[in-house]
């Protein structure tokens, strides 16, 4: 499969994953609440949230090893094999320890405190909650082991295939849980159903992974528990970054609540959900691109590296920037319908959060370079600085600006993190015989600045909204054409090829 086809397949899998997540979070909620009372559904959600927090160290370790696999690349498959099975050995040991600790915490302490639900009075519900938590944890362990095995295959071009497996697993678990709930099953019944379905599905996936590992020459002939634990300890840096980013994304609610109350927090969280849709869409491009980019970095291929960067920035120029401008027009109407007019829409807050997404997009190629090469110290430094900025700026601005102060704090933190990653990447690349593409980066940055200025005029000078809208879209179109003309030849050829194929398919249809 060619690079373009892998990227398209991986992107499609990512979009499908987002679709399943949205379906689970939005469409299935009424079904659960029809058959379960609010307390049981709340526990169901709380268990998932708790597991997401508990597995942070495991996720950090798995991601760290994946980046190591990508750094090594196909020529070093024996080292990939050594790291993989060393990692599997450590994951099995750590999983046993974590399971024992979680079992003790679940059955010998007040599990309601862990779930932030206070005391669970019903003995039956308490029993189901404890075992549901353990079952979900066992499912996570099995999925994590398969996940680590599949991560090693990303270096060999199988990222899209593994992505589709994950989409299918999400669909299976959603269908099983909904079916059991509609049949009258309770909390424990739903989790037992998920355990059975996941076990069968993950076994089939494991068989497929094992065949692919054999095909690419990854064998379990040597491993080192010591080496595995060395990597595990090193990965704490990545896990620490996840904790800090989680605080920046979710922990700010603890700061908003004392100042603005539940109503302000609800407005902020709901507004941010709309703004984050474009960010999620961007990640569907960047995640599948990472394995390809790491291969180009390893081969020190400047043209292909720039083409990879160009793909992300092309999305920024042609889709995200004009899309964010258009959203400023339609978001207030959509928001009123979505929230049934019960939550007030804040144009300045939404604009601020939207601009933050653009700076996040601008920094994605640089983040891929630093994150993909496991430059942990640099990641931690930027995460700490960003978290401190959010805390300090929010404390200063919220008493005077309200929710807008929270948006400004996040925007400043996003800008600092973006240019921090860009600075680190532009310094790191020459050490590998590569150069940061300054010219096209400046054009991409200009689109962000054009959008920034246009949105500010639309929000704070509403009498000029339509004039600003037209001028901003025109300027973005001019800059996108300018960007296309400065892209590497290999990138423009790929784009032209895709356009021709699409045209042929359209005419045939």
From TrEMBL:
Signal peptide: none
Protein keywords: Cell membrane, Membrane, Transmembrane, Transmembrane helix
Coiled-coil region(s): none
Residue ranges crossing the lipid bilayer per the database entry: 12-35, 41-61, 82-111, 131-150, 162-184, 190-207, 312-337, 349-371, 380-402, 408-429, 441-460
Localisation per UniProt entry: Cell membrane
Membrane topology, from the record: Multi-pass membrane protein
Coarse class of the protein's main subcellular location: membrane
InterPro entries registered for this protein in UniProt: Poly_Biosynth_Transport (IPR050833)
Protein name: Lipopolysaccharide biosynthesis protein
Organism: Larkinella bovis
């Amino acid at each position: 499969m060619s690079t373009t086809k892998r990227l398209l397949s991986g992107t499609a899998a990512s979009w499908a994953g987002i679709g399943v997540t949205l379906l689970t979070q939005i469409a299935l909620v009424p079904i659960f609440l029809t058959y379960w009372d609010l307390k049981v559904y709340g526990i169901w959600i709380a268990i998932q949230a708790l597991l997401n927090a508990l597995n942070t160290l495991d996720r950090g370790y798995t991601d760290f090893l994946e980046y190591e696999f990508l750094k090594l690349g196909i020529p070093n498959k024996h080292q990939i094999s050594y790291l993989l099975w060393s990692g599997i050995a450590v994951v099995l040991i750590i999983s046993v320890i974590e399971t024992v600790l979680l079992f003790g915490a679940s059955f010998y302490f007040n599990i309601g405190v862990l779930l932030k639900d206070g005391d669970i009075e019903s003995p039956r519900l308490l029993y189901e909650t404890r075992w549901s938590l353990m079952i979900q944890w066992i499912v996570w362990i099995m999925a994590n082991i398969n996940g680590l095995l599949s991560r090693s295959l990303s270096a060999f071009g199988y990222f899209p295939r593994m992505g589709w497996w994950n989409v299918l697993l999400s669909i299976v678990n959603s269908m099983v849980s909904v079916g059991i709930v509609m049949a009258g099953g309770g909390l424990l019944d739903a989790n037992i159903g998920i355990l059975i379905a996941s076990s069968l599905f993950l076994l089939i996936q494991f068989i497929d992974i094992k065949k692919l590992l054999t095909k690419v020459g990854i064998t379990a002939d040597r491993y080192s528990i010591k080496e595995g634990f060395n990597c595990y300890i090193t990965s704490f840096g990545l896990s620490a970054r996840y904790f800090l980013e989680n605080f920046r994304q979710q922990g700010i609610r603890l700061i908003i609540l004392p100042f603005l109350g539940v109503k302000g927090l609800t407005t902020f969280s709901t507004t941010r959900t709309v703004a984050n849709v474009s960010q999620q869409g961007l990640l569907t491009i960047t995640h599948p691109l990472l394995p390809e980019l790491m291969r180009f970095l390893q081969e020190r291929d400047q043209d292909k590296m720039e083409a990879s960067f160009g793909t992300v920035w092309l999305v920024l120029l042609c889709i995200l920037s004009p899309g964010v401008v258009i959203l400023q027009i339609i978001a207030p109407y959509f928001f009123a319908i979505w929230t049934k007019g019960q939550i007030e829409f804040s144009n300045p807050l939404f604009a601020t959060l939207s601009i933050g997404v653009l700076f996040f997009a601008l920094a994605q190629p640089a983040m891929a370079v630093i994150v993909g090469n496991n430059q942990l110290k640099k990641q931690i430094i930027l995460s700490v600085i960003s978290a401190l900025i959010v805390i300090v700026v929010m404390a200063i601005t919220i008493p005077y600006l309200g929710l807008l102060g929270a948006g400004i704090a996040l925007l400043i933190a996003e800008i600092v993190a973006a240019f921090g990653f860009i600075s680190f990447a532009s310094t790191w690349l020459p050490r590998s015989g590569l150069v940061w593409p300054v010219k096209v980066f400046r054009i991409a940055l200009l689109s962000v600045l054009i959008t920034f200025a246009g949105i500010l005029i639309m929000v704070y000078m509403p009498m000029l909204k339509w004039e600003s809208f037209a001028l901003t879209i025109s300027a973005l179109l001019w800059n996108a054409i300018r960007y296309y003309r400065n892209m590497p030849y290999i990138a423009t050829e790929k784009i032209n090829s895709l356009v021709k194929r699409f045209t042929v398919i359209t005419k045939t249809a």
